[in-house]
Structure formats: C-alpha cells, structure tokens
Fold each of these.
Amino acid sequence: MTGRIAELLRALGARIVNNWIWRLGFACRFLWFTLKESGASFRRFHLTIREIYFTGVLSLIIILVSGLFVGMVLGLQGYDTLVRYGSSEALGVLVSLSLVRELGPVVAGLLFASRAGSAITAEIGLMKATEQLSAMEMMAVDPIARVVAPRFWAGVISMPLLAALFSAMGVFGGYLVGVRLIGVDEGSFWSQMQAAVDFREDVLNGVIKSLVFGVAVTWIAVYEGYDAPPTAEGVSGATTRTVVTSSLAILALDFVLTALMFRGH
Amino acid sequence: MMTRKELDLWVGIFAVIGIGAMLFLSLKVANLASFSAADSYQIIAKFDNIGGLKVRAPVKSAGVVVGRVGDIRFDNESFEAVVALNIDGRYQFPKDSSAKILTSGLLGEQYIGLSPGGDSVSLKSGDTLKLTQSAVVLENLIGQFLYNKAAEGDGKK
Amino acid sequence: MIAQRRRSFTAELRRVIARMRSKYVAARFSRLEFALRVFRADTVATSNLVEVQNVTFGYDERQVLKDINLVVPQGKVVAIMGLSGCGKTTLLRVIGGALFPDSGEVRVTGRVVNKLRDAELFALRRKMGMLFQFGALFTDMSSFENVAFQMREHTKLPESIIRDLALMKLQAVGLRGAADLMPSELSGGMARRVALARSIALDPMLMMYDEPFTGLDPISLGVIGQLIRRLNDSLGATSIVVTHDVAEALELVDYVYYMSAGKVEFQGTPDQVRAAGLSSLRQFVYGEPDGPVPFHYPAPDYRRDLLAQ
C-alpha cells in the first residue's frame, strides 16, 4: 500500500521536475543566450525590421478590428449600466479607463500570442525540423543570433504599439456608439475622460504592462519553437503550448502588475 | 518575398501609426498637455481636516482650474495637514486669499476652491495661506444635525 | 582572362577573410596570429585531412559509436556506408564538431576538433562544407540568396562581387537559371544541387555529404555523383560521403569504410569491397534479403503462434 503511494509520489515528482523545472531552467538559459546574442539584431537592423513586419504589421488587421468591436461593446454595455445611476456622461471615463488600464494590453496581448506567437513557434520549429538550424550552425552562423534574437526583439517592439492601437481604436469605437449612435453628450464624453485618465498612472502603466506582456509572449514563443521535437506532431504541439502558456502568463502577470500599480488608488 | 524597400515602408507605417496612437492616448484621452508644471509656483495651505482630498486634485477659482494639489503632509507639531498647491504662473492671487475644500457634486471627488481676498500684494512662491476652511465631514454634519434637533426639542419643552 | 579573374577573386576573398574582424578573435589574437591559425590548414604537411582515433559516443541509453578509427587522406573521396542506424550520420556530426565524443579524438588538419574553443571552431567550420540529407535550404530566401548567405555573413565583400561569385557557384552545379526561384519551387534534385552550391560557397577544404543520393531520380543521381567528384577534384578538397546507395558510391569514391552497429567492420578500395568475403558486407553490397541481417524479425515459434488460441 505505502509502496503504491510512494510510486505515485515519485511519478508526480518526476513529472514536475522533468516537465516544469527542467524546461523552465532551459528556458531561462535560452533567454540569457538570446539577450547575449542580440548585438546582431541591432547592428543589422534590417533583420529585425523584417521580423517586425511579420509579427507586427501582419497583426494590424486583427488588432484594429478587435479594438473597434471591443470599444463598441464597452460603449453599449457601459451606457446600459451607467444610465441607471444617471451618470451616462461618464461613459467616456468608463470606456477609456477600462481600455487603457486593462483591456488594451491584455486583449492585444492575447491576440498577439495567438497570431504572432504561434507563427513564430511554427516557423522556428519547422526550421529545426528541416535541419535549417543545423545547416546554419555548420556554416558557422549562430542560429540564435540570426533567427531567434531578431524575432524576440520584433515581438517586444511590436507589442506596445499594438496595445496602444487597440486602446485608441477602442476609444474611437466607444465614441462611435456612445456619442453618434446613442446620443451621449460629446463634450462631456471627452472632457470627463481627459479629467479622469492620468498620463502617468494610466497610460504609462498600460505601456509598461504591454512591454512586459510582449517580453513574456515572445520569450515563450521563441523557446517553444527552438525546443520543439523535430517532427510534425512536435511542432504542432509546441504551437498549441505557446498559445496556452502565453495566455495564462498574460493573465497571471496582469494580476501581479495591477496589484503593484493600482494599489490604494 | 517582399523586397527590402517594401518591408521598410510597411514597418515605417506601422511605427508611425503606433506612435500616433500613443500620442492620441496621451494628449486626447489623458491630460498630458493641459497642465505644464514648468511655469507654476507653489503656495502652502494648512487644514485641520482635508477629508478625502488627494494629490493632483484640481485647485479651482471661480470654477476654473488654476492649479493642482502637489503634496499633502502632516505637521507633527501643529497637528495640521500641510497641503502644497501648484498654481499656474499665469494667475496671481492676493496675499489674503482663502482656500476651502469643496466637493464636486454631492458625493464626488474633493477639490480646493481658492477665493481671492483684497490685498494689493500678491502671493509669491513659498507663501502660506492665512485663511483656510477644512473639509466637511459627513459624520460630523449628521452629528450636528441630530444635536441641533435634540436641542430644539429641549428648547420647545 | 577568366582564369585570371577567378584567381584575383579568390585572392581578394582570402585578403578579406584575413582582414575580417570577429569580436572574439580580435580580442584574443593579433592579426598575424589569427591569419596563421586559420590558414595553417593550407600549409599543414600531414597527408590525412581527417583522423578519427578511438572515438566512442553514446546517448544515455545506448552506445552509437564504439571505438571508431578511420582516416581520410587529403584530396580523396571517402565513403562511409552501412545500414540505417549504424551510426554513420552521428560520425559525420562528430567530425563536424556538432557532437562531442565521449572519448577519443577527432583531428581535422591536425587540430583536435572537440578541444577547440568557440571562435576557433567557428573559424574551422568556415573551411568545411556540409550537404544535408534533403538540402536544408532556407525556405524564406531564393536560391541565389541561399548561395550568397555565407558570403554575406562572413565576408565584407561588396554586393557586386558576391553576386558574381554566387552565380559562378550556381553555374558550377548547372542551376544559374534557377537563381531567383524559391526553394519551394524547386524539385528534390534541384534543391539538393542548390544546397551543394551553397556549401561550396567559400571554397571549403573538407566537404561532407549526408545521404546525398537518397530519394533522387536516376538522372539527378548521376548528376550529383558527377558533381561530387568534379567539385572535389577542381577545388582540391577532400570529401566524405555517407550513404547506403552502394552502386553509386562504389563508382564514385576512392576508399570505403563499412560500418555496422557502431563499429568499422571493413575498409578498402571499391574493388576490394566488391570482392570481399565478409558475409555481412556481401549481403549489404549485393542486397541479399537474408544473411547476417536476418529476414525475420525475432518472433516465437511459427507453428505455436498459428495454433495458439
């Protein structure tokens, strides 16, 4: 009986050590190597620009459209709730604060993880499976410097820009629904918003959040791609893991950052 | 496979609209441009009770925002709240102006109302306001009301 | 005229490589030392370019290479043959420095590969070219850009010279007209030829081929075989070909090592291989279905298996 329990505990421990702690250790060393080899990404900036195109520019459509719809929904739902307390002029405040503080970084981060993060993982995983990374190594070109680091920095640079675009489109969407469609007073919409949203407290904190999310998502995407087993199932499994792990990481980090930034306001 | 020129163009456009969105958020949505701290001067006001006054609350005179609350501290010797007000350099107030803590709306946030006095000399940076009125604390008000009601009742007997 | 042009390009190439400033190398060696260390390869007097001595290698569960000894003389084409899983690709990776042996030494141009520091290993790899099994072309670049890759990464040659050199390499494999095609638009044989052009981009002294004949049609087979021989002789290089295509290999190479289960079972010239008496080698060379490698996978008694409930 105790033998069985000991066996189960041992299996659980092995699972935790092999899947989580081992991989976490590799992931940290991998991040360290990526940062160390980042010189080339900036000296030959066209490499990074190419990756910014594939991660950032190609995500624009989904970010802008989603931002617009989220803002419009906020406008509708927000008006519905606020009008019950006679505070419908505060719609601008509701929409802008929700977006700038939380929804902008978080939702843009989730969308970025599922679109660009999975693409990065699949690309690096496939390059590994078709021996392109080995070929690069045999040609004395470090694949981390040439393939991984530019993608990492492209993700970190794109993420705050995408989050800002999401928030801006959201505010515009809220304006469209609230002012144009429903008829909230345009003047009070903008003036109350300007009075309530503080640059340092809200906008800057939102930018910091999106930077942190960018680092987390791109780190996970790049690591999973590099570590993927070089088979078809391996790459597809790695891509799924990227999206799942990134999403969980974003939500967890969001809580931590919100607790740190918006304490006792 | 795009040429380098096309890539650069698209990334440039992306960067421009991204930064544009950030500027929009900073200037139009938030209040970055409305108050510049550069040309402001600071005056001190002491209160017995500041109620719910917060840092960066507006300082209004005649209903117009003329400054922001800079710093709130506690004086351990006179046991008063010491509030530093940053007033916009464009506006000068007489030396005997008074400050009141008011509430916007019935249950809204608190701000400082600055009422001008009649002195010909103006306040300079670092001056202290002589006349202040503390915030209205709701519990005291209710207590006062009840006390008055009880006193009235006694008086009638 | 063309010969003169080619010589001046190569001279220019060497001058630029010698002037090349790698961050690690410049920090540690002086220019003269650097030139000597990289180019000692050209002046080394040993007749064997590659020497593998008592190399053992294994993963946690199993031994892949058991006490291997082989030499590759300079200027020759050597084949390493054997069944799948006998360790020949692993041996190639060990020679290239991608894997480190558990014991033993691998010397290339007299220097022990597994004891080199990073910068020296990178410098040595620039003198080695490897052709991977299915080409391993970079799929996000055209054929021309694949061939020009090493030149752009490792040299500071101007674009016009790089363009000429890359086109010359493509011409050598017969694919100058396909320069602008993407790897996805090439057939298997063409992709492998472009990969070959890419690996000879910096005129390496050692060429390694990992299963170059696998999955090719007869024409492409003949083309690749010819190219291996011709390039080896015209570059003055040395080649190691890992394969299990017996017919093609025996036509092509100067010397053969036959591996089985991680050991070198036989070595000799192609004629010696054809006439060998070793039964496992005979089975391999003549493709006999049954012999030391049995036809039947180990199974219980046939009669008992059929009659069992």
Amino acid sequence: MPAAGVVLIITVVAIVLVLVYYLVSTIFALRQITAGLDDAIGAVVEIIEKSKPVEEIVTSINMNLDAGVDLLEGLLVKKAGMVDAIGLVDGLYPGAGAEGFRNFPDSGSTKAPRISEVYTKGTLTLARLGREAPIAAASPGGGAVLRNVPGGSLAARSLYPEVRQTHPERMPRSPVIGADSPVQYEPSDEPGVRRRRPATNGEGA
Amino acid sequence: MTVWWIGDIVLIVVVVPVVIYLLNGVLKEARGIVPSVRQIEAAAAAGSKDLDSAALLLTTQEQVRQTIETAANYGGSLDVILDDAT
C-alpha cells in the first residue's frame, strides 16, 4: 500500500474517533437536557393543576367583595349624602374622593369637604345621630348646631362624664377588692340576693 | 500518487478542522443548555411549591363570604337605625 493510502486511512480513522467523541458527549448533554425538561414539565403540570381552581375562587371572592362595596357605598351615600360621603372617604384616604364611588359615576366631580380637619374619624358617625357636629345642621332632626367648629376635636369630651372634664388632680380611687379589702361582704345565699347585715349601734332596727 | 497526497493534505488541513469546529460548536451549545434547563427545573419546582398555599384561597373565600354577610347584616341594621340624608 502506498504511503498516501496509509495516511488517508489514518486520517479517516482519526476523523471517526473525533466524531465518536463529540457525538457521544453531545448525546450525554442532550440526555441531561431531556431529564431536566422532564422534571420541569412535571412541575409545570403541578402548577397547572394547582392553579386550575384559582380563577373560580378569585372570581367568587371578587363577586362577594363587589357586593360588599356596592352595599357599603350605597349605605354611606344614602345615610350621609353624596357630599359628606365623598368628604369622609377623602378624609380617610386622601385623594380617593376624586375617584368617586364606583356605583355613582358623577360622584367623582363632587367637591369633597375637608371633613378630616373638622371631625375626628368617629365623630361623623355620631354626627348623624345628633347635633354634635355642624354637618348635623342638615339632619332631618334639625335644631341648632351644638359643636364648636374651631374646637371641634375638644367637643368629643362632652361625651364623657362631667367630672373628668374638670381635670381634677385626684380622681376617687377604685374600690379595693379581695380578701384584704376594708369592706367585706359575706357570700350571698343565692345569686342577686345579699345577706342582710346585722344592725350596728346607731343604726335603725 | 500526487493526487492522493493532495487529497490527504486537503483532508487533514481542511476537513478535519472543519469537522472538529462544527462538532465542538454543537457540543458547546448542548452543554450550555444544561444549566438553563436546571434553572427552569428549579423555578418550576419552586413555583409549584409556592402554589401549595393556593388551597388556602378556599378559607379566604369562606372568610370573605362571612365578612360580607356580617357587613350586610350590620348595614341592614344601620339602615333602620339611621335617618337617610335626604
């Protein structure tokens, strides 16, 4: 065999060996990819299965929340009036008044009164019950407004007993109870009926 | 004979480098995909695990229903107690 033929054979064998090496390496890499994709597909199927009922549940939740919003918006507008309702919402959530109520398309154009500067958060609710706030001037109950607007936040104190509004230095202490209390009461014979205490000197028979 | 040698030289100088270059490119790309697949696998598994808490939506759904029910009852009472604005 001529030398050129030997070189040719050696070269072809070398090429085949190189092909084998690279192709086998590629096969191993592709097998790793296949295994990884199988695992990924399994996890994706799990995701699909787990998320399948989510849409239905979230839709149901949204329906309930929509009904709640409709209810509360309608009740607030019905009881407080559109202007005060917008003012209350804007007072609690600044800027929200401009968006208006969902079921009242024109409510966004209502100018919100600065309710949060005049009333404490709970006072608006009380305002509908009485004449403690200027807003009650429009109340069906009528009558003069009892609330002092500049001192609006102090007016709520009138809801508490008179003694506390005088700011006494010392309030009467709470009664001492327990085994060491100065006044001992004998246990009653039956619930709600106190045993008659024996008459002492100076007391009537 | 000269033609044989020319063929050998072409085979060694041109064909072998081209074959090695192409096969090396295929292997490199195939090995480059493996880490990406591993990451996809890990992300999918983590996503599936995150959705384990999706079952709690049933509790949320029930809680929302009860809350709205309570609010509706409360609103009904307020509707009776409070005067309308107009």
